[in-house]
Write a structure and sequence with these properties.
Strand order of the largest sheet: 3-2-1-4-5-6-11
Helix content: 25-40%
CATH class of the largest domain: Alpha Beta
Shape: globular
CATH architecture of the largest domain: 3-Layer(aba) Sandwich
Order of helices and strands: EHEEHEHHEHEEHEEEHEEHEHH
Bound molecules: uridine-5'-diphosphate-4-deoxy-4-fluoro-alpha-D-galactose
Distance between the termini: 41 Å
Number of domains: 2
Structural class: alpha/beta
CATH topology of the largest domain: Rossmann fold
Strand content: 15-25%
Largest sheet: 7 strands, parallel
Length: 334
Amino acid sequence: MGAVLVTGGAGYIGSHIVRRLLEEGRDVIVLDDLSEGHRAAVADGATLVEGDCGDERLLGEVLAGERVSWIVHMAASSLVGESIEDPAKYYDNNVAKGLALLDGARRAGVAGIVFSSSAAVYGDPADLPITEEQPAAPTNPYGETKIAFERALGWYRRAYGTRYASLRYFNAAGAHPSGGIGEDHARETHLIPRLLGALLRGGAPVPIFGEDYPTADGTCIRDYVHVVDLAEAHVLALAALESGRIDAGAFNLGNGEGFSVREVVDTVARVTGSQPPTTRAPRRPGDPAILVASSARAAKRLGYRPSIPRLEDIVATAWRWHREHPEGYGDRAR
Ligand code: UFG
C-alpha cells in the first residue's frame, strides 16, 4: 500500500487529514516546516519530518527512504489579502516549492498527488452554485498560484502519468469533534474563529467587511464546510485514485448552502449564548459577494457527502476547541 506523505500535515486542515489516514491504517509521514503548523497537532502515529517541501535534498531523502506511494500536498500560503500585498511569497511557496515537490515525486515514481486547491481559483463566479466547468478566473495571486499548480498537475499527468485530484475547498470551518485538534493561526483572519476569539478574549469588535453587497442583508455569502468532511474527501480521493476509478480531476468541496456574514454572527450568538461584538467596516479587497459550491461531481465520483452539514454543528465544534484551548496549541506568543 505504501506510505502517504502529507506536506503541511501539522496545519489546520492537514492535521485532520493525518488523523483520518491513520484511522484508515495508512503509514503517514508529515513534512512541515512548522511556520504555520504545530508539532502538537500531528497525531502520534505519524512521523513528523520538520522541513520545507521545496528542499530538494530533504525531499529526496524522504522519498528515497520510505515507500511513499501518494502525496497529499497541503503546504502553502493561503491568505488572499496577504497574497495581494506579497505575491512573491505566494509564487515561491505555492508554485516554485510545489513544482519542486511535483518533480521530486515524478522522479521517485510516486503514483499521484491529492492537492489542496481553493474556491479562490474561480474569482467572481459567473453562475451559482459554482461547478468545476466554470472557467478559472482568479482575482488575486493566491488563486493564481493554486490554478498554476493545478495546471502543472494536468501536464505532468499527460506526460508522466502522475495521477492527481485537485480538491477545491470552499470555507473550511469547525474542529475535530473529539476536541483534540482545531484551528490555531498566528494571525487569525477567518470569520468564525475571530468571532469566537472575540467572545473568549474580548478585545476589539470583529469588523463586518461590507454591508453593501448585492445580497439579502448586504453582507458576503460563503459556503462553510466542516474540516472533518474536507479530511474525509481526501481519503475518498486517494481511494478513487488508487483503485483507478479516477485518474485526474478537479473537485469542489462545499456544503452547497450559503450563509451571509450576518447569519454566521447570529449562529455564533445562538451556539455560544453570547452576542459577539461586531462593528461596521468597509469591504475587504478581493472578497467576492457570493461563493457557493456545487459539490455534485465530488458526490458522484468520489462518494463525498458531508457528515456535519449544519452551520450550528460546525460552529459548535469550533466553539468547543476554542473554549478548551484558549491559547490554541500554546506554542507561540499571541
Ligand atoms: N469577514 C468579516 N470580518 C472578518 C473576517 C471575515 O466580515 O473579520 C468576512 C469576509 O469578508 C468574508 C467572510 O467573512 O465575506 C468569510 O471570510 P474568511 O476570511 O473567513 O474566509 P474567505 O472567504 O475570505 O476565505 C476562504 C478561504 C481562502 C479562500 C477563499 C476563497 O480561507 O483560502 O475562501 O475566496 F481563498
